[in-house]
Every structure is written in structure tokens, then in C-alpha cells.
Design brief:
This is Oxygen sensor histidine kinase NreB. One of its GO terms (cellular component) is cytoplasm. It holds the Pfam family HATPase_c. The protein is α+β, with helices and mostly antiparallel strands and 235 residues long. The chain folds into two domains: 84 residues; 130 residues, Heat Shock Protein 90 (2-Layer Sandwich), CATH 3.30.565.10. The two termini are 21 Å apart.
């Protein structure tokens, strides 16, 4: 008696959905760049023109000068935040680069943006990974680093990659640990924390396992194990 094929179909559908989601993310980033970012640049230009006109007409009081400077500061701050967001989620070369190179580049970016110290340890040969698997791991690591910094207040993070043998082929294990504030996972589960649930969903989409360990005052550890190959597509 043959085993039911429904789980494989579900994983394959999730695999395709992940690829569509990644494409949709890049489309949204492009829309942000070509829309709001350009509008903010235009607003800065108009603000400069307004200031020059007021100076020429000798109508720029010290109070108005302060307000103009404050508006410029707010616009520039918002623009820098949006550009940083776009830069963080700009698609790396998933097809052309291996996971280790992708991770190294992501960690360098994170250190530069947050002053966090991130240590990377690679054990054993890292297997070649299918593109959907690389995308999933990359986005999980991205979210884990962001959570450690924004929510945990961590200033040190350790990332470990380790190749492992599996019954159905090579697998990869990734752990991300930090020295942040930590939290109660049970309370997070009750609140359906979007970031944590998103990481779990991404890992399960590529046929992997996700584990979280944390406690108040004890930092957090995320452990992921995934197959090197993406779930087979349904014919």
C-alpha cells in the first residue's frame, strides 16, 4: 500500500509560494524606491527652493530657519531609514553564490549597521544548497539578527553552520545565539509573534526543522536543520 502523497504536494506548493513571495518582495522594494523614495528626494529639493526664496525675499526669520532645518532633518532621517531597509532586503546573488559567502556578506552588513559583534563558525564541508533552501536560510538568519538587536538588545551574536549527513542526503544545521535580554517563548507563542512564526514557516516550507530556546535574561538560541535539496516539485 503506497503512502499518501499529500504532504509532498503541500511542501512543493509551499516551495513555489516561497519563490513567488521572494519575487513579490523585490517588486515591493522596487516600488518603494521608485515611488516614496523619489517623492522624498523631491520634497527635499522643494524645501531647498523654498528656503532660497525666503532668503531672497528677506522673509526667513530665525524661527522659520529652525523649522526648515527640522523638516530637512526629518526628511533625511526618513529617507535614510527607507534606503537602509531597501539595502537590507535587496536580493543577493542566490544562484551564483554559496551560502557561506552570502552569510559572510550579511554579517558584515549587520555589524556595520548596528555595531554588533558577530562571530561565524563553519564546521565541516557545507553542502551545495538548492536556491529555495538558500533563500529560506538567508531570510531566517536576517530575521534572527534583527530580533537579537531590536528586541533583545544583544551586542554579540554567534552564527554556526555545520554540514551533516542525512538518510535522504546532506543536510545543513544553522544556529544563531545571542547575549540579549531573552524572553519567555511560551508568552511569545500566545501572542503569535509574527517574526518568530515567519521563521518557523520558512523552515518548514523547505522541509526543515526549527527550534527556539530562550529565557528572560539568558539570551536566545535558534537552531535550524534543513535538507540540501528543495522538496521535489510535483509533476
Amino acid at each position: 500500500m503506497s503512502a499518501p502523497a499529500a504532504p509532498t504536494r503541500e511542501i512543493s506548493a509551499s516551495h513555489r509560494m516561497m519563490q513567488v513571495t521572494e519575487w513579490e518582495l523585490q517588486r515591493i522594494l522596487l516600488d518603494i524606491h521608485d515611488g516614496p523614495v523619489q517623492h522624498m528626494f523631491a520634497a527635499l529639493s522643494q524645501l531647498d527652493l523654498l528656503r532660497r526664496a525666503l532668503v531672497s525675499a528677506e522673509c526667513l526669520s530665525p524661527e522659520a530657519e529652525d523649522r526648515v532645518a527640522r523638516i530637512r532633518q526629518l526628511l533625511e532621517g526618513g529617507l535614510n531609514e527607507v534606503r537602509s531597509f531597501i539595502g537590507a532586503f535587496r536580493p543577493p546573488e542566490f544562484e551564483a553564490r554559496g551560502l557561506v559567502a552570502l552569510v559572510e556578506n550579511l554579517l558584515l552588513q549587520h555589524e556595520a549597521m548596528t555595531d554588533t559583534q558577530v562571530a561565524l563558525e563553519v564546521r565541516g564541508p557545507v553542502p551545495d544548497l538548492a536556491v529555495p533552501v538558500k533563500i529560506g536560510l538567508y531570510r531566517v538568519l536576517q530575521e534572527a539578527l534583527s530580533n537579537a538587536y531590536r528586541h533583545g538588545g544583544a551586542d554579540r551574536v554567534a552564527v554556526r553552520l555545520r554540514g551533516a549527513a542525512g538518510r535522504e542526503g546532506p543536510r545543513l544545521r544553522m544556529t544563531v545565539s545571542d547575549n540579549g535580554d531573552g524572553f519567555d517563548p511560551a508568552r511569545m507563542a500566545e501572542g503569535r509573534h509574527f517574526g518568530l512564526q515567519g521563521m518557523r514557516d520558512r523552515v518548514e516550507m523547505i522541509g526543515g526543522r526549527f527550534r527556539l530556546r530562550s529565557a528572560p535574561g539568558a539570551g536566545a538560541l535558534i537552531a535550524v536543520e534543513v535538507p540540501s535539496a528543495a522538496p521535489a516539485e510535483e509533476e
